[in-house]
Design a protein that fits this description.
With 288 residues, this protein is mainly alpha-helical. Helices cover 51% and strands 10% of the residues. Among the domains are: 5-45, no CATH class; 117-203. It has 8 helices and 8 strands; from the N terminus they run ββαββββααααααββα. The strands form 3 sheets. Strands 3-7-8 form a 3-stranded mixed sheet. A 3-stranded antiparallel sheet has the order 4-5-6. Strands 1-2 form a two-stranded antiparallel ribbon. The relative contact order is 0.11.
Length: 288
C-alpha cells in the first residue's frame, strides 16, 4: 500500500503511470522517504549486513594536527583514530582508542555540568512565575493595541461620513485616510509580533534547565548517542582527542555552571543557583 503512487497524485493503469486530477494525500518527498525506509528494511531482511553505528564520529578533532577523528571496526570492536588529514600530517602519532574507553571519557566530561535537582526545581518554579507575569503583561499590551486599532477604525468611519456629507474635499479625504491606514497597519504588525513572540526566551531556557538537570543521568546511564548529543550542546565543536583523553571548553550558557577555578563542578554564591538563607547571611556579612 505504501508503494502506491496514488497517494502523492499519480496513478497506475495497465502498467503505465499517469498524473491524476485528485488531490494528493501526502507529498512526494514523504512518499520517497517512506519508500527509502521500506527499501532499507527489505535489504536487511534478506541478509544484507546493517552498517555499524559509530556514535562519536564528528564529535572530536585531533589535538595534534586538527584532523577529523574517524572510526574503524577491528576484531568486533570500534576504534577511533586521527585521519591524519590535519595541518601537521607528517608527525601526527595520536594512538587509537576503543569506543568503550572514549565513552568513559565523554561521561567524565559531562558530569560536572549537572544542575542540582533542587536548584533546577526552584528555577523552573521561578520560570513558571515569570511566564505568567510575562503572559499578563503581553496580554495587556495586545489589548492596548486592539483598542488603538478600534479607535483608528472609528476615525476612518467618521472621516468617510464627513466626506460623504461633502464636508471635506476628495484630496483631503484621501490624504487623511492614507495616514490613518498607515497607522493602523503599524499597530496591526506590532500586535502580531507581540502575539507571536510572547516570552520567546523562556521556552529555550526551560529546555536548558531540564537538560542540565538530566546531565548526570545521561552521563552515567545514557546511550552513546545521547552522550554525543549532549556533548555537542555543551562543547560545540571544541572537543579534541589527545592521547586517548577527551578535553575541551564548554560554550554558553553551560559555562554558568562552573567557575574558572577548580570547584568540582559547583558554581559560587554569585552564580546561577537560587539564593538560600545561608548565602544571604554570608553576603550580608560581606557587605557589612
Amino acid at each position: 500500500m505504501l508503494t502506491n503512487p496514488f497517494y502523492y497524485g499519480h496513478f497506475r493503469y495497465k502498467g503505465d503511470t499517469y498524473e491524476g486530477v485528485h488531490e494528493p494525500i501526502i507529498s512526494k518527498a514523504l512518499f520517497d522517504e517512506a519508500n527509502a525506509i521500506l527499501s532499507g528494511r527489505w535489504r536487511y531482511a534478506h541478509g544484507e549486513q546493517k552498517p555499524v553505528q559509530k556514535p562519536f564520529l564528528g564529535l572530536l578533532r585531533c589535538a595534534t594536527c586538527g584532523g577529523a577523528i574517524t572510526g574503524e571496526v577491528q576484531k568486533g570492536h570500534i576504534y577511533y583514530r586521527c585521519t591524519k588529514k590535519g595541518r601537521m600530517v607528517s608527525w601526527c602519532e595520536q594512538p587509537y582508542t576503543r569506543q568503550e574507553a572514549l565513552e568513559m571519557e565523554i561521561s567524565s566530561l559531562l558530569k560536572p555540568y549537572t544542575l542540582r535537582e533542587d536548584w533546577a526545581d526552584q528555577m523552573l518554579k521561578r520560570l513558571e512565575d515569570e511566564k505568567k507575569q510575562s503572559a499578563q503583561a503581553l496580554a495587556q499590551q495586545v489589548a492596548q493595541k486592539r483598542l488603538e486599532i478600534e479607535k483608528l477604525n472609528l476615525k476612518m468611519k467618521k472621516l468617510l461620513d464627513t466626506f460623504l456629507d461633502d464636508l471635506v474635499d476628495r484630496e483631503t479625504f484621501a490624504a487623511e485616510k492614507a495616514k490613518l491606514m498607515s497607522q493602523k497597519k503599524t499597530l496591526e504588525e506590532q500586535k502580531e509580533r507581540l502575539q507571536v513572540g510572547r516570552a520567546d526566551w523562556l521556552e529555550p531556557f526551560q529546555s536548558w534547565i531540564l537538560t542540565a538537570k538530566n546531565t548526570g543521568e545521561i552521563a552515567v546511564s545514557g546511550s552513546a548517542e545521547d552522550k554525543r548529543g549532549l556533548a555537542l550542546k555543551i562543547f560545540g565543536s571544541n572537543l579534541v582527542l589527545d592521547c586517548k583523553k577527551a578535553r575541551g571548553c564548554c560554550v554558553k550558557p553551560w559555562s554558568l555552571l562552573v567557575e574558572k577555578s577548580q570547584t568540582g563542578g559547583m558554581v559560587d554564591d554569585t552564580g546561577l543557583e537560587p539564593v538560600t538563607s545561608s548565602m544571604s547571611r554570608k553576603r550580608s556579612s560581606q557587605l557589612s
